[in-house]
Amino acid sequence: MAPAMKAMKAKKVAMKAMKGQKAMTKGGLMGSLADATEMKKSDIAKILNSLTEIGTEEVKKSGKFILPGLCMIKTRQKPATKAGKRLMFGKEVMVKAQPAKTVVRASPVAALKSQI
After folding, report:
1. Distance CA 35, CA 39 (A)
2. CA–CA separation, 20 and 80 (whole Å)
3. Where are the domains of the chain?
4. Which InterPro entries has this protein been placed in (predicted)?
5. Predicted confidence pLDDT, tens digits, the chain (116 residues)
6. 24, 45, 58, 114 — which has fewest CB within 10 A?
7. Is 63 helix (H, G, I), strand (E, B) or coil?
8. Pseudo-torsion of CA 39, 45, 46, 47, nearest 10°?
């Protein structure tokens, strides 16, 4: 079997393993934080809600919010596009006009990338 085929099979197996795992819910996160800090779940819920509000305000105001050691949330302005014909995959397609919009992106911080 060619090395490329082995790599593709390994990638498929890894993707199936990732599909089986579910992301941690807000309640699960509150429970694990409460256990780690010996605080009540209600106090942790208040902290998470205030963190959400602060992050939202900061992204609206400055366009950037960093959770130290975890991720960076940024906004980016996408310009408006005109309607017309575009060449896509060898075919000419009619495209509708799109208004300008603000896109929110989150990316991991270098410290998190190095740990994974």
Report:
1. 7
2. 39
3. 1-62, 63-116
4. Hist_DNA-bd (IPR000119), IHF-like_DNA-bd_dom_sf (IPR010992)
5. 556 666 666 666 666 656 667 888 989 988 998 999 889 999 999 999 999 999 999 999 999 999 988 899 999 999 999 999 988 898 999 999 999 999 999 999 888 888 87
6. 114
7. coil
8. 70
What are φ and ψ of residue 110, in 5° steps?
-60, -35
**Cα gap 42→46, rounded to integer Å:** 6
Copy the structure tokens of residue 87: 């060449």
CA 85 – CA 95 distance, rounded (Å) = 6
Task: State how beta strands 71-78 and 64-67 pair.
Answer: antiparallel
How many CB atoms lie under 10 A from the CB of residue 44? 20
| Beta strand pairing call for 91-95 and 101-108 | unpaired
107: region left, alpha or beta (phi > 0 left; psi from -120 to 50 alpha)? beta
- Count CB neighbours of 95 within 10 A: 12
Q: Work out the number of other CB atoms within 10 angstroms of the CB of residue 103.
A: 9
